TrEMBL record:
Family recorded in the similarity comment: Belongs to the AAA ATPase family.
GO cellular component terms, semicolon-separated: cytoplasm; nucleus; proteasome complex
Transmembrane domains' residue ranges: 556-575, 587-605
Protein name per Swiss-Prot or TrEMBL: 26S protease regulatory subunit 10B
Gene3D superfamilies (alphabetical): 1.10.8.60, Nucleic acid-binding proteins, P-loop containing nucleotide triphosphate hydrolases
GO biological process terms held by the UniProt record: proteolysis
Organism the protein comes from: Trichinella nativa
Alphabetical list of InterPro entries matching this protein: 26S_Proteasome_ATPase, AAA+_ATPase, AAA_lid_3, ATPase_AAA_core, ATPase_AAA_CS, MCU_C, NA-bd_OB-fold, P-loop_NTPase
Lineage: Eukaryota, Metazoa, Ecdysozoa, Nematoda, Enoplea
AAA+ ATPase domain: residues covered: 215-354
Pfam families in the record: AAA (PF00004), AAA_lid_3 (PF17862), MCU (PF04678), Prot_ATP_ID_OB_C (PF16450)
Keyword Disulfide bond applies: no
Transmembrane listed as a keyword: yes
Sections of the chain in a coiled coil: 54-102, 638-665
Subcellular localization, as worded in the UniProt entry: Cytoplasm; Nucleus
């Protein structure tokens, strides 16, 4: 009776066994029955109550069930360990085979003939028709794919990744840093526009598909230095967690022809292979400047680089999930083809921060600083008019340095006030860039400008016509006191005006302003062809000046010729190593002595009249010659120098011919 009761209870409990197979379940129940058989008989003999025997059987059953679960878990762990050992064994065996096998040849797929045959060009030169392993996806073996060939059978063993230039590889591994949008102050509207152009097409491309428009390809960030253009690009790359290529445009330019354009192709190919990707090109004005018809070989190489960049941005190959961000502080110098929609769809200006923006920025930079007491940042900001974000960061740094000098571990409000005044004094010494688009004036426009700025000048005379272009974006008075660009015959010269030039110009009441600028620009050149052009320029301009004086012209440009003689003389002396001193001595003597002739005559005129030449006074060359003869000036020597100039030009031509023959040999 007790046996039947126990068996019935065990059967009832056995129904609760889940996850076990039927044979195993029966085996467990049988073992439980056998284990309690002896105790059951003893209990029958001792006539114990049936409830006690029932409880003992249940406890034994539970113990066996726990042991079974423990064995199952240990068995599972052992199986996992065995599988890991098998994988490690297979890897070790493959590594051993690789070490024992010979190397493989790197090749490039040229064309697919049949399903299993390909034309491959090996790195050592020859081309082969080879087969392919079955495990390789043949759809990926397109033209230009790099593959590994077996040394003996030349079978395609595996597909290799695209070859990446080391410079591009280093660009891709530059960490943008852990920067969030909250770390950028005062640029809420700019952040919104940038996220629309760059972030939204990468995270939600379905929005553009439903609307039926193409997402923008890139944007241009422009504004004064230190306003946060680079910081914005780094924040976008950090928030998206995508591949990021930071390119310094000046590093792309190479001295070898074609290398810069190849670098652009490598960069965009890498970005397409690692989508989504953001390409950030800083200082884009280094390669994206306006194109012009003439220039040096270096200028033409930069133009080829720009054309390759334009082709990659809007060519036949789609960019896909590749977005471009460019930054510059000189947007007026960029080529119009680069700025058009389809390449840079949006131009975002990053201006200098206003008062509220400056307050947000300085609070962000001052947050990690150890401070004492309550600091009134609004008072600090009121003294920072015209500061950029970089200047405000410099204010915090200067405040910390003041605390270090005071041997303190904290910064006070007084430190911030001293720091902002110090940075403000330093900014007064900096030259502010003018971001107005440059105005390329004609000769007539320059004449009108000079008359407008200087009412006492009654006429403006020019010796260079039609091809003279002068670029300015500042008032004429401040322009003459600084550095400017002069474009003559489509060649650009950087002109540095002496500090006292403007005062002398006003005192002499000279009208040939543009011509003086031309002489200054011409005197800045420093190669062999330029020296010859300077000599030719002097020789051609001496005669018109003499004719002008004989015809009783209004003005003579003595001061400009004096400056030219000094600069050209120094220029000739600094280039003596290109030729023997026998050749360069007459050059120096002619340029210096010949031009100083006019400065000397000008001195005589002003000495006798005690005033500068005016419009009412008529000058003649005969008067100049008489004054020069009276002081012992040798005009025969001057004519000899002219003859020496002609002889020098012939010697220069001979030198060029000899040099070209040496290079050809």
């Amino acid at each position: 009776m007790h046996f039947c009761m126990i068996e019935q209870n065990i059967t009832t409990e056995g129904k609760h066994l889940t996850g076990c197979s039927e044979p195993r379940k029966n085996l467990i129940m049988t073992e439980i029955v056998k284990s309690v058989d002896v105790e059951m008989m003893m209990n029958v003999e001792s006539e114990k109550p049936g409830d006690e025997m029932h409880e003992q059987a249940i406890e034994e059953y539970r113990r066996k069930l726990a042991e079974y679960a423990d064995v199952e878990s240990r068995l599972k762990e052992i199986r996992i360990h065995v599988n890991s050992l098998k994988e490690e064994y297979d890897k070790t065996e493959n590594d051993l085979k690789a070490l024992q096998s010979v190397g493989q040849i790197v090749g490039e797929v040229l064309k697919q003939l049949t399903e299993d045959k390909f034309i491959v060009k090996a790195t050592n030169g020859p081309r082969y028709v080879v087969g392919c392993r079955r495990s390789i996806d043949k759809k990926k073996l397109i033209q230009g794919t790099r593959v590994a060939l077996d040394m003996t059978t030349l079978t395609i063993m595996r597909q290799l990744p695209r070859e990446v230039d080391p410079l591009v590889y280093n660009m891709s591994h530059e960490d943008p840093g852990d920067i969030s949008y909250t770390m950028i102050g005062g640029l809420a509207e700019q952040i919104r526009q940038l996220r629309e152009v760059v972030e939204l097409p990468l995270t939600n491309p379905d929005l553009f598909i439903r609307v039926g428009i193409d997402p923008p390809k890139g944007c241009l960030l422009y504004g004064p230095p230190g306003t946060g253009k680079t910081l914005l690009a780094r924040a976008v790359a950090s928030q998206l967690e995508c591949n990021f290529l930071k390119v310094v445009s000046s590093a792309i330019v190479d001295k070898y022809i074609g290398e810069s354009a190849r670098m652009i192709r490598e960069m965009f190919n890498y970005a397409r292979d690692h989508q989504p990707c953001i390409i950030f090109m800083d200082e884009i004005d280094a390669i994206g400047g306006r194109r012009f018809s003439e220039g040096t070989s270096a200028d033409r190489e930069i133009q080829r680089t720009l054309m390759e960049l334009l082709n990659q941005m809007d060519g036949f190959d789609a960019l896909g999930k590749v977005k471009i961000i460019m930054a510059t502080n000189r947007p007026d110098t960029l080529d119009p083809a680069l700025l058009r929609p389809g390449r840079l769809d949006r131009k975002i200006e990053i201006p200098l921060p206003n008062e509220q923006a400056r307050l947000d920025i300085i609070k962000i930079h001052a947050k990690p600083i150890t401070k004492k007491g309550i600091i009134d940042f609004e008072s600090v900001v009121k003294l920072s008019d015209g500061f950029s974000g970089a200047d405000l960061r410099n204010v915090c740094t200067e405040a910390g340095l003041l605390a270090i000098r005071g041997e303190r571990d904290y910064v006070t409000e007084e430190d911030f006030m001293k720091a902002v005044r110090k940075v403000g004094e330093a900014k007064k010494l900096e030259s502010k860039l003018d971001y107005k688009p440059p105005y390329f004036a004609t000769v007539g426009d320059i004449a009108s400008l000079i008359r407008k700025e200087h009412q006492h000048i009654c006429s403006v005379q020019f010796y260079t016509c039609d091809n003279l272009r002068f670029a300015y974006s500042a008032p004429f008075e401040s322009l003459l006191k600084s550095t400017f660009y002069l474009r003559i015959n489509d060649s650009v010269h950087l002109v540095q005006v002496p500090p006292d030039f403007y005062e002398k110009l006003v005192e002499t009441r000279s009208t040939d302003v543009v011509r003086l600028m031309e002489l200054f620009g011409t005197a800045q050149k420093s190669n062999e062809n330029t020296i010859t052009e300077n000599l030719k320029l002097l020789k051609e301009e001496l005669q018109p000046l003499e004719n002008k004086a004989r015809l009783k012209s209004k003005r003579l440009m003595w001061l400009g010729l004096g400056f030219l003689g000094i600069q050209a003389g120094i220029l000739a002396r600094f280039t003596w190593w290109e030729y023997s001193w026998d050749v360069m001595e007459p050059v120096t003597y002619f340029v210096t002595y010949g031009s100083m002739l006019f400065s000397y005559c000008y001195f005589l005129l002003t000495r006798e009249s005690n005033e500068y030449p005016s419009v009412d006074k008529r000058l003649s060359m005969s008067f100049t010659y008489k004054a020069a003869d009276r002081h012992g000036f040798d005009f025969k020597r001057y004519n000899e120098l002219k003859e020496n100039c002609r002889r020098l030009e012939e010697e220069l031509r001979q030198l060029r011919r000899q040099r070209s023959m040496i290079f050809k040999a």
